[in-house]
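Co-fold these.
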Amino acid sequence: MKITKASIESAAARIAPYIHTTPIMTNKSINELYGLDLYFKCENFQKIGAFKIRGGMNASLQLTPEQMEKGVATHSSGNHAQALAFAAKMLGIKAYIVMPESSPQVKVNAVRGYGAEVTICASNQAARESTLQEIVDRTGATFIHPYDNDEVITGQATCVKEMIEAIPDIDIVVAPVGGGGLLSGTCLGANYFKPGLKVYAGEPEGAADAVLSLQSGKVEKAPFVNTIADGLMTTLSERTLEIIQAHVADILLVSDDEIKAALRLVYERMKIIIEPSCAVPLAAVLKNPGLFKGKKVGIILTGGNVDLSKFKDWF
Amino acid sequence: MKITKASIESAAARIAPYIHTTPIMTNKSINELYGLDLYFKCENFQKIGAFKIRGGMNASLQLTPEQMEKGVATHSSGNHAQALAFAAKMLGIKAYIVMPESSPQVKVNAVRGYGAEVTICASNQAARESTLQEIVDRTGATFIHPYDNDEVITGQATCVKEMIEAIPDIDIVVAPVGGGGLLSGTCLGANYFKPGLKVYAGEPEGAADAVLSLQSGKVEKAPFVNTIADGLMTTLSERTLEIIQAHVADILLVSDDEIKAALRLVYERMKIIIEPSCAVPLAAVLKNPGLFKGKKVGIILTGGNVDLSKFKDWF
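Predicted complex below.
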């Protein structure tokens, strides 16, 4: 295993100048309403508005000078695109980002705003991969995968490390699972920095690949993909599954109605803006109170990059 | 003048066990976009979700034992209702709140949730006042006005005091103006705790009573009342006007379109939920950059109690 306690500590030091140590919020009214003791790690206040900058920055900072000269590349419609574009801007290197034509214009603009070169492609996996490959072949840029990458996972692990430092007696951490970059990093960080700290994951019923993969022990596809939690539609990789199955306490499924109720609770009570994907861990906690009552429970709020025109579909 | 430096200091100590010292946020992307240096005092994270708890708590805590026995009363459709209900709950006393039938059910529920006795009346000023008077006559409860009250103003002044303590070299503070409780408290607090600290106000064009009152020197009505900033529709009192005209640098008018643009900026860039009324000071700053460039500018974000179903009208 390449990811060690020391490599996560190095990553934390490496990315510190570029990221925020995000605040941890508590909310008395939510705790009282549900009889819980919750601690929300606010990565929605992170640089680029999401935790993804941790992994993107950590990977970019470890390129060789030769690699730096040729830049970085990825395909993403979401926060990893912004993370890599921002990291490249910080380092003064080129970023080539392939985005599907279905990407919201506001996200395309944000990526371009960081100075990245955006290539729009058809909205399917084959087009994304072939377009990226063409760019990598032409430019020599280094492909940085959003989660199937050790340096990215190591970067994401710094989030739970901060949480443990801030709340040393924390009992449980809950993260969402999409491709598993954050979840596998959280599993490793918990294991290294507070052995015995339990890690649960929340997953949407409409993108239930991780729960199936955990059962079968190999990477499975979701039976169907349709969820408000649009950041969690990706599937695990063998790399992330291996880490997750070694460490995760359980993966808890939630419906879109449960996600919406948790989302509303955060907006109304905490007065902060989070993506629907971030409401998945809270929804999982509220659905399974017996697992969490009497414990100090950390919840990773992964990001806050929402298209405000979507509000009307959610509330 | 009853409100002194010492009385604001006493109020701050008196209410400290019941309120939050709210965080001050900065946002690099907004500062870079507009070439400004802004500090946002986040009263949306305050108890009850708004600064009003400062004044409501300060007034309630100074009741005599005889007054406490009979409780407090007010009419309000908004944050003052919640503030007084919460204060009464903290003190274990009765709160009688008259709310117009147009009040959103969510706000009525919140006030009842604090244990207050809610009386619904017709949605006009005469009905509100007569219903309240009947309750005060019957119960002997003490009427606590949302802003035309020295103890309330003194409580609101604690907000700018915190801001000055956190950012001693602040140059300007900008607050919204409705009835003038927050603005007059901010004027006094600025004057006492950092003489020379300039205070500007933002006011919606669709509730432009304060700017007219400042011109004529007497309490004026707005020419028309129609604005997204529904917390600012009230008019100054003689008490608040007197303080404001002695201290305010200027009152800056903004249109609803400008308020909406500032609201969007806060939601998209800062990832926090604020009421439209809170976006008024930021809108005023963005409209008059020449007044604020090169200065450290504090902006009071007054509250975050929004009906999520309104989002579709704003974005």
